[in-house]
Write a structure and sequence with these properties.
single chain, alpha/beta, Aspartate Aminotransferase, domain 1, Aspartate Aminotransferase, domain 2, 2 domains, 7-stranded mixed β-sheet, 12 strands, L-allo-threonine aldolase activity
Length: 351
Amino acid sequence: MSNDGRYIDLGTDARTAPTSRMWEAMQAVALNAVPFKGHEAVETLTLRACELTGMQSALLLPSCTMANLVAIMAHADRGDQVILEESSHIAWSEGWGMASIAGIYPKLLKGSRGAIDLSDIRAAIGRSVFSHRPHTKLLCLENTHNASGGAVLPLAYTEEVCAAMKERGISVHLDGARVFNAAVALHSPVRPLTETFDSVALNLNKGISALEGALLCGSSAFIRKASRLARTLGGDSQHKADIIAAAGLIGLNEMADVIAEDHRRARLFASAAQRIAGVAIELESVRTNIVMADVSGTGLAADEVLRRLLHRGVAAYLYNEHTLRFVFHRQISDDDAKTAARRLEEAIGHS
């Protein structure tokens, strides 16, 4: 721990605590006080999610991982092929549930900052060996793209891809765990980023800052099917869902300005950290709340730098042997961002 005692958690925004207004709303619901009773909070939350995304219906689930899995199972059948970007969160951070639980084959394609070239998607759909062709039912995209440092998918790209898949009868699902970050970065409402998709998963913690939970949005028929599937996975019986929903609703309505500050502080940190000898950061690529720092130029392995950082009271995420990921959220101040960069320099310079 550092000398000043301040612990700076840049490991993930998933641990962001609810705001005071969220805690108050959750307590009010728990005590059956106005404005919500029973499951009215869930209904209000899902209606708001539909307004934001342009979808007909929505389902509250425990996590974005479950929302993505339920979406895949609702769109595709056992033995079908689903196309994903090769470093996507669904592919590498969600336990391969599509294969182990759903029996669905993931086809991984290399993208550029999360965007798969449309010609590569078409080739994967049409590829034939010995006259046999995989049955592709779904394409999944991620916005923002976690492994690409919070990269934002251009609106023109998602519109073109969704239109091309619609022509082929292939559904497109958006892992929008951080789509609110994408909207802020593009100075856009969320709806233009989501309404061309067949379904979208939204995370209620991270930048939205609710305690937990995720929303799966889509057509009414899709959500009816998704609800049945969620029940089989144990995700449709959240007995205190109204408490979670009360916080989530505040997050959806109030956190956009805070998310913009997360982005500014990520760039503040990146600007300072990229001046450290041996640390490589593509400053122009830091558009949202994630900073990827390649520390290989320091001569130290990333896990060793992380160990030293933790000793100095800064948490980060070990992305690979060369790279650390730093994620900014509403509990990180300007001083924290500057202090984290200074401690990173100290960690590299001292054992």
